[in-house]
Amino acid sequence: MLKRYVAIRGFVYQLNDRTILSLLPTDEQDKDIDILLGILGELESGTKDLQAEDSTILARATSSTRRSCYTQMRPSNPSDKPLTLAERAKKRKKTSHEEFNYLDCRFLRPTSNMCERFFSLAKLALTDHRRAMTPQNFEQQMFLKVNNWLWYVSDLVKAMSK
């Protein structure tokens, strides 16, 4: 909303309408708005960087923790004598089967609030009486419900009167 105001600020002052000019912020408040928009841009770029696919802050922390735990839990060799060739091969075979396979979660995106709201709306819309509805009708009704800001009841009355 502030971005829109900054974009049309010059045009609003050109209107010279007293009712509108009395509602506009002062010059000091305009400067504060510009500063806040600058800070908001920095905050937005920072959050985008943290949510990027190639951001591996959590992955680095978990892998370093996993490595340190693994080295602490590794059994030490009770004897000081060197292992024979057969013992080394047997030990290598044992450790090769104990590899940890973790799922790389960097590609998973967080579920947005809009999707969660949509699913809860769909859950509310699918009552026992409406379960026999065709998928096309359900899709159209959910589209209209989610995008209710695009149409009004007067639009519906006009469409039905035609």
UniProtKB/TrEMBL annotation:
<protein>
    <recommendedName>
        <fullName>HAT C-terminal dimerisation domain-containing protein</fullName>
    </recommendedName>
</protein>
